[in-house]
């Protein structure tokens, strides 16, 4: 399999973490790519019309995207414990956490594009504030609901860890840990996992 990849993308990181957690990393050849909404990579756009990372190419040429789809596909390829619980409340908790982490990332990345990509005279502070309010809303929910992150690691926990890692990487001065000790404690603990250490954005 081939993975269109970027070591700074938190969505790609979800896939790289899951691949390490499940022993599949050696079966995935990574193709380093660089994309942004204003600089399409034609090689990526040929396999994913959205021009976004990650995209996984299976051995028969089928392209899979986006990160939730790729992660669930990979989770069906190994014989160990499932990171997508098969049924019942555990499944909905894991998928809800994944949606919260992906949603936090969508908002953080829209704020980042506005702050870093848009020409300075056109930047819109209310837009950035609106996206940051979504990020804060998810963080506050996770602090109240930190119990949902306890127990075996799932795709939900992987996604939240990648999202918090992205905030540390791109918004180091925003202080997301302030007044969120339970979430910060959980993140410190899971950050020791080899899969997360090996994929830390730099
Ligand atoms: N929902 C997608 C989001 C993927 C995404 O937005 N990836 C970013 C990289 S961090 C990207 O490719 N951005 C380029 C663009 O928006 O054109 C997923 O979970 O894979």
Commentary on this structure:
By secondary structure, this protein is an alpha+beta fold. Helices cover 52% and strands 6% of the residues. The protein has 8 helices and 4 strands; from the N terminus they run E-H-E-H-E-E-H-H-H-H-H-H. It has helices at 10-21, 42-47, 67-75, 89-116, 125-144, 155-170, 181-190, 194-197; strands at 2-5, 29-32, 55-57, 63-64. Strands 2-1-3-4 form a 4-stranded mixed beta sheet. A hairpin with a 5-residue loop joins strand 3 (55-57) and strand 4. Helix 1 packs across helix 6. The longest helix has 28 residues, at 89-116. It is globular. The two termini are 25 Å apart. The mean pLDDT is 98. Bound molecules: glutathione. The site of glutathione has 13 residues, from helix 4.
Number of strands: 4
The count of helical stretches stands at 8
Q: Which compounds are bound in this model?
A: glutathione
Structural class by helix and strand composition: alpha+beta
Order of helices and strands: EHEHEEHHHHHH
Helix content: 40-55%
Overall 3D form: globular
- Distance separating the two termini: 25 Å
Strand content: 5-15%
The low-confidence runs, each spanning 5 or more residues with pLDDT under 50, are none
Largest sheet: 4 strands, mixed
Let me know the average pLDDT: 98
Strand order, largest beta sheet: 2-1-3-4
Rg over C-alpha atoms, rounded to the nearest angstrom: 17 Å
């Amino acid at each position: 399999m081939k993975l269109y990849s970027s070591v700074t993308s938190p969505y790609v990181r979800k896939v790289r973490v899951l691949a390490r957690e499940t022993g599949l990393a050696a079966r995935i050849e990574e193709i380093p790519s660089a994309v942004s909404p204003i600089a399409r990579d034609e090689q990526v756009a040929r396999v994913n019309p959205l021009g976004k990372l990650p995209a996984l190419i299976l051995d028969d040429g089928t392209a899979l995207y986006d990160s939730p789809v790729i992660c669930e596909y990979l989770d069906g390829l190994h014989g160990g414990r499932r990171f997508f619980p098969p049924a019942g409340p555990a499944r909905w908790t894991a998928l809800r956490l994944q949606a919260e982490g992906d949603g936090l990332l969508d908002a953080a990345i829209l704020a980042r594009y506005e702050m870093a990509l848009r020409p300075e005279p056109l930047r819109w502070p209310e837009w950035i504030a609106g996206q940051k309010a979504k990020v804060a809303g998810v963080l506050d929910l996770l602090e109240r609901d930190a119990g949902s992150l306890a127990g075996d690691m799932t795709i939900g926990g992987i996604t939240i860890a990648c999202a918090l890692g992205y905030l540390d990487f791109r918004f180091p001065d925003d202080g997301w840990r302030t007044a969120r000790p339970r979430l910060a404690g959980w993140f410190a603990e899971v950050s020791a996992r080899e899969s997360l250490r090996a994929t830390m954005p730099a």
